């Protein structure tokens, strides 16, 4: 009885090995990806920045080594540029604004709103600004949006860059990639009022973007 059982187990094992070889799958401890060394990753990114590279990248493992794989070229003036954590908050704010109909999309609409806003410093944080401007950093040609940060500075409107125009478009509830949007606190219509949840999101977003933009100089 035990012989029959061991022969069956042996037969099953052989079948599994043959199937693995057939599918080109080889399981071994050596095939496991090495753990990412945080210090090594930070050093590599710092090196790329010092060399003036303006590409977003993701960390991949190739032949046991850490490699930065370019994803898309960024405009050289993408500053402040949201990191992954900040970008999540920014895109969340864009989604909420689209839902509450307080979002302006595209260069034409955003520039129009900026030019209508007063010049000079606002009386208090967020009290006299038309909204928060979010730009996509992977725009080509860069001249499409190069004048917008300057306009924002002139009118003291907070702004920030995100790495993907596709993600910005999706957050703004459109299938098309979007170069720039403006998140406003209120819609242009008197009878439409944003909900309390959105107002909290807007206030948090304003704080985050203002904090990121404190060291920016045009």
Structure notes:
The strands form 2 sheets. A 4-stranded mixed β-sheet has the order 3-6-4-5. It is α+β, with helices and mostly antiparallel strands and 218 residues long. Mean pLDDT is 76; it is low at 25-31 and 52-56. It has helices at residues 2-23, 38-50, 84-99, 106-116, 148-154, 165-171, 196-212, and strands at residues 55-62, 65-73, 103-105, 132-136, 159-162, 180-183. The longest helix has 22 residues, at 2-23.
List keywords for this structure.
H/ACA ribonucleoprotein complex subunit 2, nucleus, Ribosomal_eL8/eL30/eS12/Gad45, RNA binding, RNA-binding, 7 helices, alpha+beta, four-stranded mixed β-sheet, two-stranded antiparallel sheet, 218 residues, single chain
Category from helices, strands and their pairing: alpha+beta
Q: Describe the sheet with the most strands.
A: 4 strands, mixed
Which series of helices and strands comes N to C? HHEEHEHEHEHEH
- Residue share in β-strands: 15-25%
Distance between the ends? 83 Å
List segments where confidence is low: pLDDT < 50 over at least 5 consecutive residues.
Answer: 25-31, 52-56
User: Which percent bin holds the helix content?
Assistant: 40-55%
Report the strand count: 6
Please tell me the overall pLDDT: 76
Query: What is the tally of helical segments?
Result: 7
Physical arrangement of strands within the biggest beta sheet: 3-6-4-5
Rg over CA atoms, rounded to whole Å, is 25 Å
Shape: globular
Family: Belongs to the eukaryotic ribosomal protein eL8 family.
Protein name: H/ACA ribonucleoprotein complex subunit 2
Organism: Lachnellula hyalina
Keywords: Nucleus, Ribonucleoprotein, RNA-binding
């Amino acid at each position: 009885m035990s012989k029959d059982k061991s022969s069956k187990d042996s037969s099953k094992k052989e079948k599994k090995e043959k199937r693995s070889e057939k599918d080109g799958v080889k399981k071994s401890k050596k095939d496991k990806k090495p753990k990412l060394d945080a210090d090594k990753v930070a050093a590599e990114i710092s090196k790329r920045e010092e060399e003036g590279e303006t590409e977003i990248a993701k960390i991949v493992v190739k032949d046991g080594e850490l490699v930065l794989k370019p994803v898309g070229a960024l405009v050289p003036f993408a500053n402040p540029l949201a990191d992954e954590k900040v970008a999540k908050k920014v895109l969340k704010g864009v989604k909420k604004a689209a839902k509450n109909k307080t979002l302006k999309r595209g260069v034409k609409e955003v520039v129009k709103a900026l030019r209508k806003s007063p010049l000079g410093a606002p009386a208090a944080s967020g009290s006299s600004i038309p909204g928060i401007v979010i730009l996509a950093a992977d725009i080509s040609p860069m001249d499409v949006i190069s004048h917008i940060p300057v306009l924002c500075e002139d009118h003291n409107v907070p702004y920030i860059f995100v790495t993907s125009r596709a993600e910005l478009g999706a957050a703004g509830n459109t299938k098309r990639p979007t170069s720039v949007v403006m998140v406003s606190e209120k819609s242009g219509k008197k009878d439409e009022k944003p909900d309390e949840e959105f107002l909290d999101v807007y206030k948090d977003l304003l704080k985050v973007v203002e904090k990121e933009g404190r060291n920016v100089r045009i």
